[in-house]
Amino acid sequence: MNTQEKQQKYEQLVRDMHADVYRYAYWLIKDKAIAEDVVQETFLRAWKSLDSLKDDKAAKAWLITILRRENARRFERKQFDLVDMDDVSLADDGPMHETQIEHGELHKLMENLSEEYREPLMLQVIFGYNGEEIAQELSLNKNTVMTRLFRARNQLKEALEKGEK
Amino acid sequence: MSLNTDNDKIRQSIMADPATSDAEITAAINADENLKEFQIAMLELDKAIKETSEVAVPEGLMDKLLHIPQSDAAETPTAEEQPETKQNKVVALSSKRNHIVQLALAASIAFAVGLSFTLFNQNPDIRSGADLALAHMYHERAYTQRVSREVSLEEVNTKLATFGGEMLNAIGQVTYANFCFFESQKSLHLVMHTESGDITLFVTPKDLKNEIDSQFQDDAYEGRSWKMQEADITIIGEKGKLDPELETRIRQSMQFSA
After folding, report:
1. Looking at the partner chain, which of A19, A79, A122 has a beta carbon nearest the beta carbon of B230?
2. Which of A32-36, B59-63, B142-146 has the lowest mean pLDDT?
3. Can you give the pLDDT at residue B4?
4. Residue B237 three-state SS
5. Which CATH number belongs to the domain containing residue A51 in this structure?
6. B-chain residues near A78 (CB < 8 A)
7. Which residue of A has its CA nearest to B162?
8. Nearest CB to B53; choose among A126, A149, A153
């Protein structure tokens, strides 16, 4: 791959994937500014090791893996100012767009899901992963993944029903 | 296994994957109106989850990401670095400046056609940390001006926190604050409007291979660099306008903790 091909491939990757990758980062981290930083680092790593991406169809999984690793690295840095993510969630994020207003309650409920439920759910919903693909990405067995997906929706469903009463 | 247990298991499967194409589950759904209704309700919930998951992508994020190959290339020194004496450095820098500006200009144009990586990565003129800082400033200048806005001290401090740093009071209005990369290491690039004109400030990690000289200059710009507890600071301003007091004020305003 020559430089121009590499550049084109990278730009295509950014255009196709940046929105989904950012959204996934957002739901993983629950903080817009940190999610944006992690996405920038993810794409820097992607640019640097683009040669190792042989199969374009695997780009999605490849980026998700880089992103999860970059996110984990945040906690390894000794200077990192650890804050309680729940304290910096969406409290003062300005006007929400229409869908978010409509689903404001659901947004909160999704944020409050524990990470082990939220992450597989987002892989399924945002990226259209099936149970096996999620299992592979998260190094879990498929039954565990399916149980977590069931529990995630069950918690959301019950909380919404409770809210309606 | 009782019928109820079967039914529960199928409901669980539907909740784990409402759009399932599993033959056994699909057959069970087709044979039972209640299950069919349940699946429809779960598909509706999923639609709402999907819509909720689609949070707004920050404005300018795609531009920043598309810009990564350019800034990464500008900040990667060549492999064949050669030691240079301090004496000939200032002279060398002046004569190099035009070349670097040309390269930066060419790179901005080449951005569209994807050639700048080659230009910068093979640039034999960038040899020292000071060269790198100046080249970085030149290369990003058009971009930082284009996306210039009022950045709050709070936002600056969120980014500085990555380096364990904090800016206690504003030295001037910050108009650009974004992470960048020096030698592929995460750094921070600030532009601020001060009494000394527009100043570029870099926060770089301590272990750069090419240390930045404490004072440097070329035809048009001058810079100062100093070490702080957890990071190094470099400022660049227009030649003759960079007030020496600025360094003192920045030193007093910035705090780093391990």
Report:
1. A79
2. B142-146
3. 66
4. strand
5. 1.10.1740.10
6. 258
7. A80
8. A126
- Contact of A77 with chain B, judged by CB distance below 8 Å, is answered with yes
Are A70 and A129 part of one and the same domain? no
| ipTM value | 0.83
Are both A135 and A54 inside the same structural domain?
Answer: no
A75 and A107 fall within a common domain: no
Alpha-carbon distance B59 to nearest alpha carbon in chain A (angstroms):
11
**DSSP state letter for A41:** H
CB half-sphere exposure, B256, CA atoms < 13 A? 21
Q: Looking at the partner chain, which of A23, A131, A150 has a beta carbon nearest the beta carbon of B15?
A: A150
User: What pLDDT, on a 0 to 100 scale, did the predictor assign at position B104?
Assistant: 52
Closest CA to B20 of A131, A117, A156: A131
Residues A74 and A147 in one domain: no
Write the burial class of residue B23 (CB in 10 Å: 0-12 exposed, 13-18 middle, 19+ buried).
Answer: exposed
- Residue B8 C-beta-side C-alpha neighbours within 13 Å: 6
pLDDT at B219 over 70: yes
Q: What is the CATH number of the domain that holds A138?
A: 1.10.10.10
Count of CB contacts below 8 A, A vs B? Answer: 129
Write out pLDDT tens, residues A92-135. 344 444 444 446 788 999 999 999 999 999 999 999 999 999 99
Looking at the structure, do residues A10 and A30 belong to the same domain, yes or no? yes
Q: Last residue of some domain: A65, A94, A123?
A: A94
Which chain B residues are within 8 Å of A156, Cβ to Cβ? 45, 49
More confident residue, B209 or B122: B209
Q: Tell me the shortest Cα–Cα distance from A115 to chain B, in angstroms.
A: 15
Answer yes or no: do A83 and A20 share one domain: yes
Nearest to A148 by CA among A101, A114, A104: A114
Average confidence (pLDDT) over A136-154: 96
Q: Could you give the CA distance from residue B16 to residue B18 in angstroms, rounded to a whole number? A: 6
Q: Which of A94, A118, A133 is the last residue of a domain?
A: A94
> Average pLDDT of chain B?
78
How confident is the model at residue B137, as a pLDDT? 87
Do residue A132 and residue A144 come from a single domain?
Answer: yes
- Interface touch A40/B184, C-beta < 8 Å: no
What residue has token string 């990690």?
B205
Total of domains in chain A: 2
Domain boundaries, chain B: 3-53, 61-256
Indicate whether A160 and A79 sit together in one domain.
no
Q: Name the pLDDT band for B3 (thresholds 50, 70, 90).
A: low
Structural domain including A109 reads 97-165
B139-197 pLDDT, tens digit per residue, is: 778 778 877 888 889 889 988 988 889 999 888 899 988 887 787 777 889 999 998 88
Verify whether the Cβ–Cβ distance A125 to B49 is below 8 Å: yes
Distance between CA B15 and CA B31 in Å, rounded?
A: 18
